[in-house]
């Protein structure tokens, strides 16, 4: 993975008041192979310039719009211009900058969900296929080493035939009308003109759905959803549960809520087969519990040089055993795998299969289809809604 220089990243969004912009910047910089080189950080040129100054970027590489950034970066010599774009805007500003980035020859890392609606997702998926450029969707939780180990164990048959999948994502931050304050993150997420047809299911339900399919290796075939608006005055869901049916006959339950008062962010998955079961949760992210019916529980632990872990986990471990690796490291693993794959392309080499293990266009398309079908099911009197792309 030799290269003459770091990969250069341009950022769209991530200006004043952005939470996820800083997460992307920290994660991208963690391994020293990516540098932030340019940005259009806000729809306000003044705010974009302010953010660029705070990040010590040259004024000429801070742009008033992403259209300006694409036009001017393309004019720079290849060694100077950005290699890819990180897009960290609200949902309604995902499609257009991603489309234009790809059409201008820039690879893309996009914050989830993929787009504002399913129709946009289908159109964007076609553009990604046509350009052949790299696309990463930041479903963070797939970056945890023990999540990758769980996926490997299931794929290796340790659990046998999968029978049941439980995935839950409880948050409590929207337990009251936070959107009526000046809190930017709550304002846009609860606004259907910016968030789309769902709030809770689009924001965190898509993470839970992606984790369920990624870890189990199964594909959803039908669902039955119950969506709720618990806090009075909202127009979008803040709570919900979904019954799941998978392509091998297994069933599952998905819970996502933002009104679990006092809850923080402990996404959790449990998978049960006809030989064994496993469990992982973000609050204890370094551990993966594997349960056998006639033997003591096994606790797999993350850490360097652990001989029983698979290459899928080991490629995403950064520290010795006993040193906690968390959300930022998992996020950084997506960037590192994306960057390694991009370096390999630039060098005319075949990347390791472990490097290519990051969420992409299919995950995004399926996530947006999930949101659409969940909302449709939640409004229907039918028990089951067929899941199809």
UniProtKB/TrEMBL annotation:
Domain GFO/IDH/MocA-like oxidoreductase stretches: 148-278
SUPFAM superfamilies hit by this protein: Glyceraldehyde-3-phosphate dehydrogenase-like, C-terminal domain, NAD(P)-binding Rossmann-fold domains
Gene3D superfamilies: Dihydrodipicolinate Reductase, domain 2, NAD(P)-binding Rossmann-like Domain
Alphabetized InterPro entries for the sequence: Gfo/Idh/MocA-like_OxRdtase_N (IPR000683), Gfo/Idh/MocA_oxidoreduct (IPR051317), GFO_IDH_MocA-like_dom (IPR055170), NAD(P)-bd_dom_sf (IPR036291)
Domain named Gfo/Idh/MocA-like oxidoreductase N-terminal: residues: 8-136
Protein's UniProt name: Gfo/Idh/MocA family oxidoreductase
Organism, scientific name: Cyclobacterium plantarum
